[in-house]
Amino acid sequence: MGDSDSEGSDGEGGMGNVSRVIIRPPGVSGKAKRGQICFDAAFETGNLGKANLIGDFEYDLFLRPDTCNPRYRFWFNFTVDNVKQDQKVIFNLVNISKSRNLFNSGLTPLVKSSSRPKWQRLPKKHVFYYRSPHHQNHYVLSFVFCFDKEDDVYQFALAPPYSYSRLQSYLNVIENRQNQAEKKFTKSVLTKSLQNRNVDLITIDHVTGKLKTNRIDRSFIRVIVILCRSHANASPASFMCQGFLEFLLSSHNIAKILRENFVFKIVPMVNPDGVFLGNNRCNLIGQDMNRVWQVATEFSHPEIYAIKNMLREIDNSDSYQIDFVVDLHAHTSLHGCFIYGNTYEDVYRYERHLVFPRLFAGNAPDYAANNMIFNADEKKSGCARRFCCERLSDTVNAYTLEISMGGHYLKDGKTVAAYTEEGYYRCGRNLARTFLQYYRFINVLPVPLPTEVRQKKRRPRTHQSRSRSKTRYEVKPRPKTTRCYAPISYTNLSICYDSGGSSDEGGFSPTRAVAPGSSHFSGYRHYRRVASSTTIPSTSSQQHQQTHDQFALLRIKSGRFDLAHDPLLHDYCGKTKSQSPEKQTRFEVPVNVPPKPYLSIIDLNQLTRGSLKMKSASFED
């Protein structure tokens, strides 16, 4: 049961919202007592259509749909007062139209009170989002709250509201704050809305030498257009736009460079009527302002019509060129900030179109690259980015910059940090920094030399540093020593060669020249091979077998090191010794014994190829 203390809920400020409605239990009348909650949404950006008491402390709340369009019901913003201290209630939002939203990912409503004006998120353990069989199986958002102060007025909202009046106050403040002799920007009224509200245009134009510009000589002035708040519920986009504007008007070096080289056209609120009325997406007549760009008229969509004329005028000018059209939005289903772009048949234009999002991702730590989309969907043909890329010049890069109503993922990829107003401001500042980085990347602005880069300020010395010892120890140079090769031991080598080798020389490695600095064994092996091929003919199989290296692995393993009876060593050693035939080593079956291992490069390909040849030959046999 409900009762109203004041009339006018259907007026311009209410448009169907509840206006000071006190909810009494059934059968109770008279003056409202403490604890009989009073709901109110008849204020700017407010939205609550109806409230019902269904239990001792449980209320069903119905959101008011957009004006002239019952399809959209998601934004809510209402106040509660006349509460009792420590009173606990359950609020059920029962007619949310969008089932896929951030409430599935942990988003919770915001709350503040008159004594605590800072917005705070409700704890997750007190918020529930589920299908309710008592409400035709629709999704219901339920949250529990305990009022701790009787005299406070509590306000609940989906996101921090940013009203039309707040924008006008902010623009008046920065306009009065700037120096009249050196104005950093000019504010003008682009057009009037259907309810006769101002559609403001902020122009920042400090570019020098404008009279010498000419498109033919490619000396035109580059223009950057920023649009914001096409949808009424996208209040985070207004905070982002304010952060961008504040940074651009500041005394920061990046802001000075941008103001001196580029012209900025900023429309901070495209849909002032929908924002004032507390709609979710639409304007006064129920039209989605980001789906009517191709059919906008002067009578039904004067805001979009005026912006289109401004863009065409700049695009057809011989002195100006539009480089960017960035439309700022808030997303209700995804986390982080990200960019929506277009696709083009021209490969070079498409590659140029991808540069800015990549640079922005490097400047924004909360950027969600997985949510980025580049498409040419026909359903989005009426949005700003699709209209600008199709109807304006090929040099225009049109984007939609989205920022979440909830939060962004941290580095671990699992934890979500909720956005605050400062977080939205920071995203706007990152956008301004990316513009400077982009124009330096395409060589429009010079890249500063390392000496011109501002050095980091060091912390001042607030205390005396720790005393250090003045004793210096002299570091003596290392003595020069001769390099010698480590001896190689062959006593424990147990290598089994199943095949007879892989070289074309009958099992030995290819003959190599003696490398400078090589060991005596490698030089001795080379000497024997040369001698066996030139001076000493093979007279018998025994002498042929004795041509093997005396330091071969087989003889080392058997322990026979008699070098004197080798006929090849007669000239090499200059001595001969007699040796009985019994002590001579005989090989009944020809065995290919590899040479002594030495440090050299082994041709693995040749070894493998030879082994395969021998195996294939054995298979053929």
Automatic annotation (TrEMBL):
- Which superkingdom does the taxonomy of this entry point to? Eukaryota
Q: Which residues form the Peptidase M14 domain?
A: 160-439
- Catalytic residues in the record: E402
According to the UniProt entry, its GO molecular function terms are: carboxypeptidase activity
One Pfam family this sequence matches: Pepdidase_M14_N
Q: Where in the sequence is the signal peptide annotated?
A: none
In what ranges is there compositional bias, type Acidic residues? 1-10
Q: What keywords does the record list, in alphabetical order? A: Carboxypeptidase, Hydrolase, Protease
Regions of biased composition (Basic residues) lie at 455-470
Question: Annotated region Disordered: where?
Answer: 1-23, 453-478
Q: What cofactor does its activity depend on?
A: Zn(2+)
Q: Which family does it belong to?
A: Belongs to the peptidase M14 family.
Name of the protein: Cytosolic carboxypeptidase 6 isoform X2
